[in-house]
Design brief:
Elements: H1 3-9, H2 28-37, H3 40-63, E1 66-70, E2 75-77, E3 85-88, E4 91-96, E5 102-113, E6 118-133, H4 136-202, H5 210-243, H6 281-299, E7 303-315, E8 320-331, E9 334-344, E10 352-359, H7 361-432, H8 438-471, H9 477-483
Antiparallel strand pairs: 1-4, 2-3, 3-5, 4-5, 5-6, 6-7, 7-8, 8-9, 9-10
Helix pairs in contact: 1-4, 3-4, 4-5, 4-6, 4-8, 4-9, 6-7, 7-8
């Protein structure tokens, strides 16, 4: 199933990366797809999802109509007095556990004498059985439900893993932007130190003085910091593209800043409360576990009852055809079986009765212990639900506060960007008039670029925020798909 792909790309933000080298330009969709396709854990979960579907089909087959054909024990005899003969007991058994544990069977004891070329059979039986009160039908349905749940949980794990990998993708982009931010910060420090250094030169400080040398060292250190940051940016860009399945070579003369994503579109933040509380992953799972455990606990029966009916051809006990009926019951640790075979077509009416019983005293002793154990387990399940509700409420508050912070940061960055854009425009005009130095103008320009990068980082934080909310919920529509 590729549904998780739809979930992923419904909120992927398209932007264009500008490149200064002669290679193919890659869209964010291409990079993200490559990033997903090269994640080993995601590949393993995809295979696990396919395996769970196969296991569901296997469970349905096992709990559906089951038939067994058998030749029985075949005996070949070669004797001098009676001649050679062949005896075998073929049988057929069918069972449908999901329908009252319904059973049907047929068997016969067949003998062939090769000397006189005769054949005979006896104890040919046809019988049908059904449980009136038992746990087999319920256990069959539980088994199928668990297999269905395994399929849907495998799908959810795959979707959440895809969201997690996407988060790593955007986090790496954010890391690249943070490195860019560092470069601009170092550049800003460099412009400030260079401006101070130029002032010292104008003031006539000697190149041998400590003040002059300290200022000169600051300028040199600033250039070194920028060089190291650019080296780190180059390394991270190459690694990032490699994880997207793209081998990237960057020329030493390339402007690394052009490899950083140039445009990121604003996304509207998702409201945590727009999602159904019952779809909160931890809560939904806790409720399901509680429900299925309760069903399993109620399946256990103190009293069970089953009936069988059939027909026997040439019953060896009555030497006639018989109609057979039997009842199987258990009461706690006591098992009872009673049956009767009624002769057909004979004057001497002599039915054959069967009776058997077994008892297990320990089952009575452990019954009360099991009952107490089930009560404690149920309370544990309720505590798990309560804990999941608390987790939901805590998570809700955390996301609400995070959204407030993100919006505040967005507004602050926007105001500062507007301020520095205006400042850059003014200083560019003053620089053209010769009123301010080049360093002052470049510092203003750098500040504007710095807050443009901060804007991109904030935009990525909103994308990650939406991603994190989605990862906290499951899609119950998937359950309906499995049911169908």
């Amino acid at each position: 199933m590729n549904k998780f792909r739809a979930i992923l790309f419904c909120f992927i933000i398209s932007f264009v990366s500008q490149f200064s080298f002669s290679q193919e330009q890659y869209s964010i969709e291409t990079l993200l797809t490559g990033y997903l396709e090269h994640d080993i854990e995601l590949k393993k979960l995809l295979l696990n999802s396919k395996k769970s579907k196969l296991e569901l089909e296997q469970t349905k087959i096992e709990q559906g109509f089951d038939i067994t054909l058998s030749t029985g024990t075949m005996t070949f005899y070669s004797g001098k007095e009676n001649g050679s003969s062949i005896n075998f007991k073929p049988s057929i058994n069918a069972k449908i556990p999901s329908v009252k544990n319904m059973t049907a069977s047929a068997s016969v004891d067949y003998n062939v004498n090769k000397v006189d070329k005769t054949s005979s059979f006896e104890d040919g039986k046809i019988s049908f059985g059904i449980d009136l009160i038992s746990k087999e039908e319920a256990l069959s349905k539980i088994s199928i439900e668990k297999s269905k749940r395994a399929v849907i949980e495998a799908e959810w794990k795959l979707q959440h893993a895809a969201l997690s990998v996407e988060r790593k993708f955007y986090t790496e982009l954010q890391s690249i932007l943070n490195l860019t931010n560092n470069i601009l910060t170092y550049r800003q420090d460099y412009y400030t130190d260079k401006l101070n250094f130029e002032k010292l030169k104008v003031q006539g400080y000697s190149s041998t003085s400590s003040t002059y040398r300290i200022a000169e060292m600051k300028v040199s250190t600033g250039l070194h910091n920028i060089e190291v940051a650019l080296h780190n940016l180059k390394r991270d860009i190459i690694i990032f593209y490699n994880r997207c399945g793209i081998s990237l070579e960057i020329d030493e003369q390339s402007d690394l800043m052009t490899l950083v994503p140039d445009q990121i579109i604003d996304v509207e933040p998702i409201n945590f409360n727009d999602f159904d509380k019952e779809n909160f992953s931890s809560l939904e799972n806790a409720r399901w576990v509680c429900d299925i455990n309760q069903v399993q606990r109620k399946v256990e029966k103190f009293f069970t009852l089953g009936v069988n009916a059939g027909y026997t051809f040439k019953n060896s006990y009555t030497q006639s055809d018989t109609i057979d009926t039997s009842i199987l019951a258990t009461i706690g640790g006591v098992g009872l079986t009673a049956g009767v075979s009624l002769p057909v077509g004979v004057e001497d009416f002599s039915p054959a009765f069967t009776l058997s019983a077994n008892v297990n005293p320990n089952s009575f002793k452990t019954r009360e212990i099991k009952k107490q154990h089930d009560e404690l387990s149920y309370k544990q399940d309720l505590y798990d639900i309560e804990n999941a509700i608390q987790e939901y409420e805590t998570t809700q508050v955390a996301f609400e506060q995070e959204l407030i912070n993100l919006k505040w940061e967005k507004e602050t960055v926007k105001n500062n960007l507007d301020l520095y854009q205006k400042n850059e425009t003014d200083l560019k005009k003053y620089y053209n008039y010769g009123i301010v130095s080049e360093s002052e103008y470049l510092a203003a320009k750098n500040n504007r670029q710095l807050y443009e990068v901060k804007t991109k980082i904030n935009q990525l934080e909103f994308i990650l925020y939406n991603n994190d909310i989605r990862s906290k919920f499951v899609d119950l529509d998937d359950l309906n798909d499995i049911e169908k």
